[in-house]
Amino acid sequence: MGIIDKLNKDFESRVRLGIMSILMVNDWVDFTEMKTLLNITDGNLASHSSALEKAGYIEVKKEFVGKKPKTSYQVTDLGRAAFKEHLLYLEKLMKS
């Protein structure tokens, strides 16, 4: 098995890389801020964040602030470890 085979397929998308990168350095990030930082559509963020949540890499918190719904994201311990490993293999791939 080569280094490239060790890269995590869950992080192949540029949007998922972006979501994970932002969450690695921020505690909770809300939907609007994430969408703005990544310059993506609501649907794009919703589908990619849903896939990362199903994999157990991020936690999604839905709440109401006043009468408005608010969705926020946070990386999980599993997500942090998996993303660090992914970055490690990317580094190894670049050095090979």
TrEMBL record:
<dbReference type="Pfam" id="PF13601">
    <property type="entry name" value="HTH_34"/>
</dbReference>
<feature type="domain" description="Winged helix DNA-binding">
    <location>
        <begin position="15"/>
        <end position="94"/>
    </location>
</feature>
<dbReference type="InterPro" id="IPR036390">
    <property type="entry name" value="WH_DNA-bd_sf"/>
</dbReference>
<dbReference type="InterPro" id="IPR036388">
    <property type="entry name" value="WH-like_DNA-bd_sf"/>
</dbReference>
<protein>
    <submittedName>
        <fullName>Transcriptional regulator</fullName>
    </submittedName>
</protein>
<dbReference type="InterPro" id="IPR027395">
    <property type="entry name" value="WH_DNA-bd_dom"/>
</dbReference>
